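To assess whether the prediction recovers the assembly geometry, we first specified each molecular entity separately, as shown.
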Amino acid sequence: MEQWIQLFIDGTTIGGVYAVIALGYTMVYGVLRMINFAHGELFMMGAFAGFYTLDAYQQHSGLNDSLPVFTIASAIVAGMITAVVLAVVMERIAYRPLRHAPRLAPLISAIGVSIFLRNVMLRVTNAEAQVYPRVFPRGAIEWGDVSVSYIRIFLLVLSVFFLVLLWLFIERTKMGMSIRAVAEDRDTAALMGVNVDRTIVMTFVVGAALAGAAGAVYGMFVTTATAGMGFIPGIKAFTAAVLGGIGSVPGAMAGGYFLGITESLSTKFIGAQYKDVVAFVLLVLVLIFRPWGIFGKREDKRA
Amino acid sequence: MHGRNGRRWLPLSVAAALLALFAMVAVACGDDDDDGGGDQTPAATKPAGQTPAATQPSGGGDTITIKKGDKIKVGISTTLTTDNAQLGIPIRDGALLAIKQKGTIKDFEIEGIAEDDLCSGPGSVTAAQKLLSEDVVAVQGAMCSSGTVAALDTYAQENVLVISGSSTGVQVTDPPKANFLRTAWNDATQGAEMAKYACTTLAKKNAVLVNDQSVYGKGLMDVFKEAYTGAGCTVASEEAVTVGEKDFSPVVTKIKGENPDIVVFGGFIAEGAVLVRQLRDASVTADFMGADGIADAKFIEQAGGAAEGAYVSRGPTPAESTAYDKFAGEYEAEYGEKAGQFSEHAYDAMNVILAAIEASATVDADGNLVIDRQALIDAAHDVKLPDGASGPIEFNADGDRVIAAGTVNRIDQVKDGALERIQ
Amino acid sequence: MMQRFEATRALTRALDNANARARAAFDAIPLIRWILPLALGVVGALSPQWFDTRPTYALMVLITYLLLRTSTNVFGLAVLAAMLVYLPMEMDRFERGILFDIALYTMLGIGLNIVVGYAGLLDLGYVAFFASGAYIFALVVAPEAGGGWDIGASFWLMIPAAMALAAALGVALGLPVLRLRGDYLAIVTLGFGEIIRLMLNNRDDITNGPRGVYLIPKAHFFDKELTGPYELYFLVLAGVFIAAFAAERIRDSRVGRAWEAIREDEDAASAMGVNTTFYKLLAFAIGAAIGGGGGVIYAAKQTAIFPRDFDLDVSINVLALVIIGGMGNVRGVVLGAMLLIGLPEVLRDFSIEFAFIDLANIGADYRLVIFGAALVAIMVLRPEGLLPSRRRAAEFEQAEMLESELAT
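The predicted structure of the complete assembly is given in tokenized form:
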């Protein structure tokens, strides 16, 4: 029983990360109908920005020890800023010129961006894993055999916090309303006076901020950053977004948690080497019965 | 558009027919020009009228002539892109250090050419083709066992000497290949020694094995399991981690549930460091053991203190030897960084290549250096380096290293953040 | 529905006009069409030393582009065929290796193009069929020492057998996903590709797992051993031509029109009596068969294959080359493969050295950085691909026109 709970918590942690990354996928898909394959690399860049920030504090001051709250917060902000700047630049250079292009062209452009970023970081780091300074207080809450470290709790809470924040942003703000309007029908939204370009950039900004922050916190959690670290979470988050119904914000959250927990439980009951098989088989099963995802809307014409 | 139907098939079918014709002609007469692009570089000359090496892999008779003033080119096949470059770059640098120290052979300068092999079968084959087109004399590599297995066929076609410092897989020398040697320890040796140490010396009777689903990790753990259970110890479960992932919590939770005496890991530093750290974070106190894949200061650094007490097997080494320390010092002086876990093996491999060239190359009347491919391979088999950085080097008929008398399987333990030899 | 027919008719007329104009323009510049390739052929034949990897590659891409873009007659394709057969005779081992990979990926691209370009089914798991072809061949022919089953069979017999098996797999994977559309289909096919790879890796009792299958015996053409990429290149080239020929014929047949209808509007196609299930599965099956055939040749050339050879990157590469070339168009695939597969390898030698700038290793170290940037640049500059089928290009233009008309 205790192992069940532990596995469930393990799965929820990584699932929360998937969910936060998946939000970026799903929002961009919502407004542009494009899969931003470079989104996982924004996550990776966020992790590096977090590392460089904390490392700078470590090298040049004692703040990591005396004021960890501040350094952790600034690392997260650095991750967000880096990812946002990159996202705005990539939207401008690689995606905006392709707004009216055949729908698979931006996909390839995004793959190009992804290869570019990954290999730039590989050269910058000389392919070595960068090790985070241990800033976060060690220790864990123990309950029998269940042990939940503080950083895990932080990651769990933060992912939920981001999800709620995003939901409020989408549902309650004017910008959120524009995003929904553009996702619904770009041309009509434009007619109604929504600045479409600005809304699309804003979508990228929000998605990237989430990915960057997730990257920085995930980096602290796993304590290393490598150039290739965005690839697998990127694919998993993409899967989660589709599972939940791509274009749907609650769908991305549900998909992320579902995927994380599935992976965790199947590690125990089927074997770690089969966890991805289980995840994909479940995906197929879900989509056979609900071809538009768990929360997705039926969109026949868009296919 | 349907009106074009009638015309469309004609050009394609005629072209296909032409192509078939061309192809037959080309296959019939194409291969007497096996080295079309090689004319600008030191010529790979073939005695007139001889069948090219391509059709008789171990045929011999093929010689390389290096003109006076040109350089002797030696290839290095290693991984320079993807996260595996973390392993590959120190391998390249170790090999290049050997070349730099050697300087010249019979007054001919030596040039090392490194190609990216992506640690994969197809990548290593491409790297092999590239190196062969550069007319290299011999090759250090490929980095990964899968790459070596795939690329050896390509090298064999030109009867090129290949020595790997990092391909440890059992299958690489089983069956043995005439043109291949390695300074890396065969996983069969390493895995059995690890099992003996864990089961007998440490008396840890209950193990969980974790592999990274690679040729190396899975192969090593298979050997370990056989020897370990053969010695009367039990394997509680076998787990796997995915290369590239960074959160192994579910696997850690499962290991915790098994409550083993020792966790044995087959894989490389990136995953090994994450695994050991997450095990300690989950307060799993079982011992941790790995092999040459994690024998690196980076493993300790990336594990962030959690590696303390971990055992690392490094292959048969003399009890007293300063050769490795000497190499490590020179490496750090040259590159300003610590040597990687296969650097010394790559360094030794390159030294064997250079010694073999020295032993077999002759200078002809015009002052050109002539190297006979088969003679080079034979010479390499006979090379002995008693002071190899990774221990005394001598090869058996299969191309594997002979376990020299007076050596024991070296086991290091992480103490105070550094690897310290305990056996 | 009437409006749709009107639109189609207008589109066809516009296309025929565009076609005629393009041909007229092409006929007016014989220089490109006749003289350049001939001159190059003569120069090449006279001086083999003149060939060097990068210029040869650049010229090959350029000539292919010009020939494919402008010619529809026997002569142009014959020149192309002659070039593709002649060039490797002058090449060294590395260049031949690249050319083999280009030809192999062209073949895979043609297969995927049937699924994605013709039938409009976005498939991100094409590697599954490539892998199954390669593995079934390798396992059957490799000895037990190499992880195989040691059954032993002829290479030539295994090609159709593996193609049939891959086609069956295509149908089997296609069946559960018939209802899925667009990006849902993409992620499920991606999942299938990964499942196949993971099963090859995990079921080591059957497939020898991560250790792979090796010691794959060489294929023979009568008495001649097909030793390496050079010999097998001609086989792939033949495969490319057969696949291209078949693909174009099918596209212009009843089946092709059914695919087109499904691609444009599946519901309408179904309402008009097109058996969408059958035609979708047919597209999967044909695409899969070509991929399986490619897998067999790949395994025969590699002599050792590993589950890791068949990861997601392969699917992405094949999809990218189809799109970069110009979707729905066999000619585009050829060009896409030359760029996407050739470029990263050719860049290995790239270096910049003049005055005080010394970037001798820029190619070795930064080739993938350059490659990523090049992908973006190509897509931004030529969003429909380098060689879009004229029909497709016109469709997009019209769609945009309609869109802007509606918007204003």
